[in-house]
């Protein structure tokens, strides 16, 4: 598995409150996609040390949201075949966003903008030389 995919983001499929009747596997998947879209926009805005520092508090909030999504997902029963089919239609959106996030992370590392704090927020292990 690609190191970025394995290490990045508590911002993947991650409310402290139990899922209510309107929470479904589809709504959870949509929440994850929305979270990834917000993450991608924030990482895209990171072009210098100042913008990286400004993005960190927002990325922390997204990490908290990811944990809430995860908690809701864990309260759901197994998905039905119909839900699996519906969710499968969202896979391309997920893959596109994940790819963009990986590209941003690679760019930030290449440009020397991957601060220890950003690495921690994104749950990326320190690189070894």
Task: Describe it.
The chain is mainly alpha-helical and 129 residues long. It has one domain (3-121). The chain has six helices and no strands. α2 (25-44) runs parallel beside α5 (91-110). The longest helix has 26 residues, at 49-74. Mean pLDDT is 86; it is low at 1-19.
Short description:
The chain is mainly α and 129 residues long.
Keywords summarizing the entry:
single chain; 6 helices; mainly alpha; 66% helix; disordered N terminus
Question: What spatial form do the alpha-carbon principal axes imply?
Answer: elongated
Helix/sheet category: mainly alpha
Distance between the termini: 20 Å
Tally of helical segments:
6
The percent range for strand residues is under 5%
| Main pleated sheet | none
Mean pLDDT, to the nearest integer, reads: 86
Poorly predicted ranges (pLDDT <50, ≥5 residues)? Answer: 1-19
The figure for the number of domains is: 1
Gyration radius, to the nearest Å? 16 Å
Tell me the number of strands.
Answer: 0
- The helix/strand series, from N terminus to C terminus, equals HHHHHH
Helix content: 55-70%
Itemize the secondary structure elements and their pairings.
Layout (H helix, E strand, L loop, with lengths): L2 H5 L17 H20 L4 H26 L6 H8 L2 H20 L5 H6 L8
């Amino acid at each position: 598995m690609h190191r970025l995919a394995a290490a990045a983001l508590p911002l993947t499929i991650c409310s402290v409150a139990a899922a209510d009747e309107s929470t479904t596997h589809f709504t959870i998947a949509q929440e994850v996609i929305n979270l990834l879209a917000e993450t991608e926009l924030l990482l895209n805005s990171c072009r210098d040390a100042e913008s990286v520092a400004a993005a960190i508090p927002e990325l922390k909030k997204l990490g908290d949201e990811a944990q809430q999504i995860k908690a809701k997902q864990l309260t759901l029963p197994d998905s039905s075949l119909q839900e699996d089919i519906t969710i499968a239609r969202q896979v391309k959106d997920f893959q596109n966003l994940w790819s963009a996030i990986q590209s941003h992370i690679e760019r930030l590392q290449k440009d020397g903008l991957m601060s220890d704090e950003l690495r921690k927020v994104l749950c990326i292990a320190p690189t070894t030389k």
